[in-house]
Amino acid sequence: MKWEIKEGLKYARTHEWAGFEGDLVTVGITDYAQDMLKDVVYVELPEIGQEAQVGESLAVLESVKAVSDLYAPVDGEVVEVNEALLDRPELVNEDPYGEAWVVRIRIDAGYENPELLGEDDYAALVKEEADR
Amino acid sequence: MKREQPLLFELGAPGRRGCSLPPLDVPAKPINELLPPQMQRQDPLALPELSEGELVRHYTALSTRNHGVDSGFYPLGSCTMKYNPKVNEEVARLPGFALLHPCQPPESVQGAMELLYRAGLYLQEITGMDQVTFQPAAGAHGELTGMMLIRAYHRSRNDQRKVVLAPDSSHGTNPASAAMAGYEIKEVPSDERGLVDLEALRQLLNDEVAALMLTNPNTLGLFEQDILEIAAAVHDVGGLLYYDGANLNAIMGHARPGDMGFDVVHLNLHKTFATPHGGGGPGSGPVGVKEHLAPFLPVPLVEKGEKGYFWKDDLPHTIGKVHGFHGNFGVIVKAYTYMVMMGAAGLRRAAADAVLNANYLMERLKNSYALPYDRRCKHEFVISAREQKKRGVSAGDIAKALLDYGFHPPTVYFPLIVEEALMIEPTETESRETLDRFAEALEEIARLAAEDPASVLAAPHTTPVSRLDEVSAARRPRVCWTGNRKSD
Amino acid sequence: MNGGRHFLPLTDGERREMLAHIGAASEDDLFAELPPAIRLEEGLDLPPPLSEMEALAHLEALAAKNRHLREYPCFIGGGVYDHFIPSVVSHITGRSEFYTAYTPYQAEISQGVLQSIYEYQTLICRLTGMEAANASLYDGASALAEAAVAACAATRRRKVLISRSVNPHYRRVLQSYLDVRDLQLQELPLREGATDYAAAEKLLDSDTAALLLQQPNFFGLLEEMEPAAALAHRHGALLVLSTDPISLAVCRTPAEYGADIVTGEGQVLGNPPSFGGPLLGFFAARQKLIRRIPGRIAGETEDSEGRRGFVLTLQTREQHIRRERAISNICSNQALNALAAAVYLAAMGPAGLREVAELCLQKAAYALEKITALRGFAQVFPGVHFKEFAVRLPGSGGNLNGHLLKHKLIGGLDLEPLYPELGPAMLFCVTETKSREQIDALVGALEGWS
C-alpha cells in the first residue's frame, strides 16, 4: 500500500490517528487522509480547554478547494494545540504522524473508545475506500 | 516570454496626476479651522500618481489579459453567459437614469419609478408570481431575501420551522443562504435519473420543514418533471417551495415557476436577462412572491396611484430592508431594455434556441466524453472526464487545455454529484459554427488525453500567464501590495 | 415577428438541421418532459417587442420624466453622493473585456480582472490603513451587516451595539440580517448627534461582539473616536467603522482610531448615483481577521515560470466550497464598480483626492454658514462636519422639498421620518460638484420659503 500506517496508534474510521500516552492522547490525520486532501493550506485549531467529544469536529483542515473536519477520536479536554501548523500547514502533508500532530486531549483514567481500529483493521478500511 | 503588467503602484512618478478639479469658488478657511489637527490623517496617503494617458494604457493592457463574452465563447454552466446588447449600456448611462439620487422626491423621478413598476410587471408575467422586489443586488442576495420572507411567513403563523431542504445537486449558495437565514440544511439525494428522489424527499418532509429550494431545470440541466408532485408534497406538510432562478433561461416563455407551485423565486437579471456580468458583478436578484408572501416583502415598494407612482413604505409585516436603497437600478434598466426588445415571442425563442444549442453540443460530445445522464437536457448539460482521468487528465486539466483554443472553459467540478464534472451552457446567442469549433476542440483534447496526456497537463501555453500556484497563494495570502517585489 | 432577432444567430434552416441531428421531431419535442398542465401553449402576455430604435426612444422618454442631478442641483447625500467622475473612468469600465467577463474562476485568462481587483484591494487598504480587503460587497449597508456577522463569528458572541448616528437605512438592513440569525442588535442613543459612550459603556458586556460606528456619521459629523477602540477592546469586542472613503484623504483613518473592521460605501469613488444602485460595499480588516472576510479575495502568486500572477484565494471560506458552513452566502459582488473605484483613485492620486475632500469641507462650511444665517434655520448639532450637516427647519421637510423643486433644485434629505425626535429638520450635502452659484441659489430659495 502506498500510504503509511504507523504501528502503535489507534485509528478512527474518519481517518484520524490517536496516540495514547497515560492520560494524554495525541491526535492527527493519517497519511491516507492527507493524500486525499492534497496540499493543506490552513488548519483551524480548537481552543485550549475546549471539550472533546467523540465524533464532534475539533479542527478543520483546508486545501485550496476542500475542507475537511478532524473529528475527536476520544472524549476529554483539549490541553494542547499544535500552533506550528498555523504558519506551516504543509507539515500535515510532509509529516502527518510526527510534526503535524494537531491536538492533545486529556482523557479520564481508564477511558477507552472501543470503536477505534488497530493498524490491520484500519489498513483494510483504507484499502476498501481506495478501491471504491 | 510574456511580460508581467506592472502594478498601478509601480507606474507613474511623484507629482503626476490624472485629473483636474475646479478651484475653490467660496471664501477659503484655514483647513485646521474646518478640521482640527487631531482629526486629520497622520499616515500619508500613498495613491498612484499617473497621467491620464498612462492610466489608460495600464488598464488597456489589463483588458487584453482578460476574456469576456465579447472576446469569445464562454460556456460557463449555470452562469448564462449570453451576449450583452450594447444598447443596454447606452440606456443605463442616460443622465436621466445614471444621475438620479435614490432619495429624490418621487415627483422628480417618476420615469425611474415607472421603469421599476413596468419591469416588475414583466417579471411577474414571466415567472407567474404576484409581486416583485428589486432590492436584492444579486442571486445569492435574492436567496437570502427569499429565506427571510419564508421565515417571516412561518413566524407570522407561530410556526418555528427550522429546516430547509436542498438537493445534493444544488448551487452552493442555496445551503449558504438558508444557513445565513438561521436554518438547518438537509440534503435531498438525486436519483439515477439525476432528478429529485421523490421517495427520499417524502421521507425528509415533516412539519419542521420550512421550505425546499429547487433549481428547475436543475444544475445537471435536467427538468424536474415531477415538479407538481414535489410541490404538492412540500405544501402538504406546510412547507414552501423556493425557485432558484439561475436556470430560468431554459424555460422562459414555455413554463412559469408560479404555475409549477413555487411560492418564492429569485431571478438573476445578469444571467437570464442579458445584463453584463461585470467581471463578477454587479448583478441583480429580484425576488417574486405569491400573494401570501407579499405582506413580508422589503420596503419600499413602488406602486401606481392616481397621481402617479409612489413608494409604499407601510407594510406592517415587512422583513425591513436588504439593500440601502432600491437595489441595482442600473442593472434593472438594462434588463428592462432587453425585455422590451425581446417581447413574449423573443423570450420564448431565446429559451428554445438555448435548449437546442445545448442538446446539439451534448449530442456532438457524447462520443468523446462520458455522459452520466444521457437524457434530453435543457439549456445546459454535464459531461464527465472520468475516462480521461484514468490517463491522469482531470476536468481541470481539460479546462486549462481549452484556453489554448480561445474558449472560456465550462464550469468544472460542479455539480458535486458528478465526478470530474464539466458543466456546459452554450446559451442561445452562439452560432452553430462556434458550437462546432468548440466540440472539435474538446474532441481533440480527448484524443490528446488518450494519446499524449502530458501535452494536456502542460497547457495552457498561449495565455498571459501559465498555471498559477494557488497553494502558496492560500497558505501565505498576499491580498494587498506592500511594495516588496519578489525579485528586485 | 420575434423580438431580439439580432441577438439570435440560428437560422430556421439551422434549427431544422440541428433538431434532426439530435433526433427531435420538432421544437416542442425539446420541452416534451414538461407536464402538460404547466406548458404555456399561448406564450406570455407581454407588450409587443420593440426594435432597438423604438426601445431607445421608449427608454429615453422614461429617462426624460426624471429630473437628474445636472438639470437640478441636488443637495441630498445620506449614503449616495454626487461627486465628479472623470471621463477616463467610464472609458475603462466600458471596455467589454472587463464588463462582459464573469468572476475570474479561470485565472490564466482573467488576469486583467484579477490584477485590477488586487490593485483595488490595495487601494482600499491604503485608504483605511487596514491590512486586508475583499473584492467588494453589494453596498455599504450589506457590508456593515456582513461585518457584524463576521464579528459575531470571530468572537463567538451574539450581540452587537450600534450607534443611532449610523445611517438609518444601514441599521435597518443590519436588523434584517441579524434577526434571522437570532443575533441581537442594541442601539446606542444620540448624544449631541454623536455616539453616547456612557451608554456604550453600560451596554458592553461579555456577549458583545462589536461596536458599530460611522465616521463621518449620518449627520456628517466627525465624531470623537478616540475612546471607541479602547472601550470595545476592553470588553473583548471588535470596533467596526463604516466610513466615507473620500473623507479619508484628509481625516484620521480607521486604523489610526484602532478599528478592527472597516466598511463603507465606495459609490463615491467614480460611480454615478444611479438611483441608488449598483453601489459598492467595501470591506477591509486587520490581517488576523482575514479568514472572516466575506466574498471574493484576489491574492498574489506566481505561475509555473515564476511570473507574478493573481488568483482568487482563500476560497474555502466561500459558499461554493463550504456550502451551509460558508462564512457568507455571497457569490457575485460589484466587481465593475470596484474597477471604477480603482480607476477613480488612480486618476485622482493623493493630491486630487485631497482636493476633492477639501472642496467638500470648504463648500459644506460655506453652505452651513449661509443657511444657518437665515431666520428660522439653525444648525442641529454643533461640531466638525465633512460634507453634510443637519439643519432645523421652520416648516416640514417634505413641504420644503416641493418648494425647492419649483426652483429647479433638489433639496436635502428630510430627517423627520428617520429621526422623529429632531422635529422638522433636513440633512444637506455639499460636494465639490456644487458651485457657489448653486449654493447661493439654494440659500435664496430657502429664504423665499414660507
Characterise this structure.
The complex is a heterotrimer of chains A (132), B (488) and C (450). With 132 residues, chain A is of the alpha+beta class. Chain A has 4 helices and 9 strands; from the N terminus they run E-E-E-H-E-E-E-E-E-H-H-E-H. Chain B is built from 17 helices and 12 strands. Chain B has helices at residues 31-34, 52-63, 86-92, 95-98, 110-127, 139-156, 173-180, 198-204, 227-236, 257-260, 269-272, 329-365, 386-389, 395-403, 432-451, 453-457, 470-475; strands at residues 131-133, 163-167, 184-188, 209-215, 240-244, 264-266, 287-289, 301-305, 308-312, 381-384, 411-412, 421-424. The longest helix of chain B has 37 residues, at 329-365. The mean pLDDT of chain B is 96. In chain C, 36% of the residues lie in helices and 14% in strands. Chain C is built from 13 helices and 15 strands. In chain C, the strands form 4 sheets. Chain C has a 7-stranded mixed beta sheet, sandwiched between helices. The model of chain C has no long low-confidence stretch (mean pLDDT 96). Chains B and C meet through helix 2, helix 3, helix 4, helix 5 and helix 6 of B and helix 1, helix 2, helix 3, helix 4 and helix 5 of C.
Choose one word for the global shape of chain B. globular
Query: What's the β-strand tally of chain B?
Result: 12
Strand content of chain C: 5-15%
List low-pLDDT spans of chain C.
none
CATH domain topology of the largest domain in chain B? Aspartate Aminotransferase, domain 2
Top keywords for this entry?
heterotrimer, A: 132 residues, alpha+beta, OB fold (Dihydrolipoamide Acetyltransferase, E2P), six-stranded antiparallel sheet, three-stranded antiparallel sheet, 4 helices, 21% helix, globular, C: 450 residues, alpha/beta, Aspartate Aminotransferase, domain 2, Aspartate Aminotransferase, domain 1, seven-stranded mixed sheet, four-stranded antiparallel sheet, 13 helices, 36% helix
Reconstruct the topology from this structure.
The complex is a heterotrimer of chains A (132), B (488) and C (450).
Chain A: E1 10-11, E2 16-21, E3 24-29, H1 31-37, E4 42-44, E5 51-52, E6 57-62, E7 67-71, E8 76-81, H2 84-87, H3 91-94, E9 103-106, H4 119-131
Antiparallel strand pairs in A: 1-2, 2-3, 3-9, 4-6, 5-8, 6-7, 8-9
Chain B: H1 31-34, H2 52-63, H3 86-92, H4 95-98, H5 110-127, E1 131-133, H6 139-156, E2 163-167, H7 173-180, E3 184-188, H8 198-204, E4 209-215, H9 227-236, E5 240-244, H10 257-260, E6 264-266, H11 269-272, E7 287-289, E8 301-305, E9 308-312, H12 329-365, E10 381-384, H13 386-389, H14 395-403, E11 411-412, E12 421-424, H15 432-451, H16 453-457, H17 470-475
Parallel strand pairs in B: 2-3, 2-4, 4-5, 5-6
Antiparallel strand pairs in B: 1-7, 6-7, 8-9, 10-12, 11-12
Chain C: H1 12-21, H2 52-64, H3 87-93, H4 96-99, H5 111-128, E1 132-133, H6 140-155, E2 159-163, H7 168-179, E3 184-188, E4 190-191, E5 194-195, H8 197-203, E6 208-215, H9 226-234, E7 238-243, E8 261-265, E9 281-285, E10 298-302, E11 308-312, H10 319-322, H11 335-372, E12 378-379, E13 388-392, H12 397-406, E14 413-414, E15 425-429, H13 436-447
Parallel strand pairs in C: 2-3, 2-6, 6-7, 7-8
Antiparallel strand pairs in C: 1-9, 4-5, 8-9, 10-11, 12-13, 13-15, 14-15
